[in-house]
Amino acid sequence: MSGPTLHLAVEIDGDGAHPAAWRRAAHSPDQLLTPRRVAQIAAVAENAGFTLVTLDDGVLPPGVSPDPVGRIGAVERAAFLAASTSTIGIAPVVPVTYAEPFHISSQLASLDHISAGRAGWVVTEEDRLEAARAWGRPVVADADARARESRDGVEVARALWDSWEDDAVIRSVATSRYLDRERLHYIDFTGETYAVKGPAIVPRPPQGQLVVLGRPDRVPAAQLDVALVEGRDLTAVATAAAAAGTPRVFAEIEVALDTPDATATERVTDLERHAPWTDRGRLRHIGPPDQLITLLRELSRHVDGVRLHPLVLDEDLPVLSRLVLPALSERRLAASPLPGTSLRSTLGLERPANRFAAAAVQEEEAR
After folding, report:
1. Would the pTM count as exceeding 0.85?
2. What single string gives the DSSP state of each residue in 101-157?
């Protein structure tokens, strides 16, 4: 690990981690899907000094009535936020169980261009049978098969991001040349269920490769930049982090904090009257901010960062911004992203060399 500095990410989809979070939101339900709403939440996170925001997604509605059941696509929301923020990283959740990896790679590369190198990608799976019908695709019901689709999807996306070398774009008005065709490459991928030839239709992303986040038990560690690890207690998280085998490791934490109006326990109890807070096997903190700070200090010995899932964004995010992140900064346990830096740079990850350019250099040296 790179050191004691902890990178903080926050999930900002919907109104919070609890399915009934909208009942305690500071806005009316009809404001949830407006651009102003998502921009306000991202602005709070950026001003607080978060490293990264993530936006959950899936082809199926996120909830059941009477809770809100709609959302706008994560990539579309991420593109909007890329133009309305300046320092924070933005990582949409994009499953590749049924979606075309070619299109996903193009969308994510475009996002990295829009954000000037602040984009990431959270790889997940579509595990509900209805998702196959929504896509019009055969069902991928087996867990191993879904893992295969994720593995192949990431491999294809990474290869396509390299299919344009960094200097493939010429833009020479004098010679009327836009591209150097010698620096565009076919990837010639053949998997168990599909094949992709390429090259991409979008130039190589500013970061070379976007930061890819995911669960190391579902995507091979070699394909990930950041492992998202879970565990119901500190020991379980530390064990999962030690076994991750990725350049960076983030712990998943669900948080409900004491606010000026109610304790965390009171807030959870209020929402539990309407729906249960599903146990996803993650570390969960319900209590005062100072105890969360202590927990994060302990976690900094085992992981490089955390992804927080606030119970209710409108209630927990202000407390995180006012009390938790400033305290971590004072203790030099967290640092805010610097203007003009890429997400890879913020996380201490090198910009990877283009695989085709590197192969050409090695071939030339061998002659």
Report:
1. yes
2. HHHHHHHHHHHHHHTTS-BEEE-----SHHHHHHHT-----SHHHHHHHHHHHHHHH
